Amino acid sequence: MKSRHRKGDAGFFLLELLVLAGILMASVSALAVYHQSAALERENMLRVAAIYLAKQELAELAALSREGRLAPGAYGWLGEEAPVREGVEFAVEAEVRVAEGPDGWRADVVVSWPGHTGGGTASLQLEREWYEHETTG
Question: Domain residues for 10?
């Protein structure tokens, strides 16, 4: 009779192991999803920071234009603070050209930063065209 009792225990032990393995696999997959979500959230924060820096660079270029100090060519970062956000250093470069029409400017701003997926570099480009009009009065 004891041998029959042990067979039942062995089956119960196997069932416990299968349930435990299932719980462990579910936990590992949930952790992987959380890790992926955190990485995507960080990339999104960096993309938002890059958009902010590009818009700030465009505003600085427009200010130079209003002051009459803008010339066609390449520009680096024009902001007062270093372009570091979330502990990541961004590279900001602008190319300014004369647009068609009187007093028109066109600027392409490229912001790049070290990417976290694949170890490459991520970048984003914004462009803007504007015209300065003299006011009388």
Answer: 2-131
Radius of gyration of the chain (CA): 29
Domains in the chain: how many in total? 1
pLDDT tens figures, 63-79: 999 999 999 999 999 99
Look at the alpha carbons of 42, 43, 48, 49 in this order and tell me if their dihedral is positive or negative.
positive
Could you tell me the pTM of the whole model? 0.74
**137 found inside a domain:** no
In the chain, the largest separation of any two C-alpha atoms, in whole Å, equals 110
- Supply 127's token pair: 């462009």
Q: Tens digit of pLDDT for each residue in 87-137?
A: 899 999 999 999 987 789 999 999 999 976 667 899 999 999 999 876 665
Give CA–CA dist 15/5, Å, rounded: 16
The residue to which tokens 């393995």 are assigned: 21
**Amino acid, single-letter form, for residue 122:** A
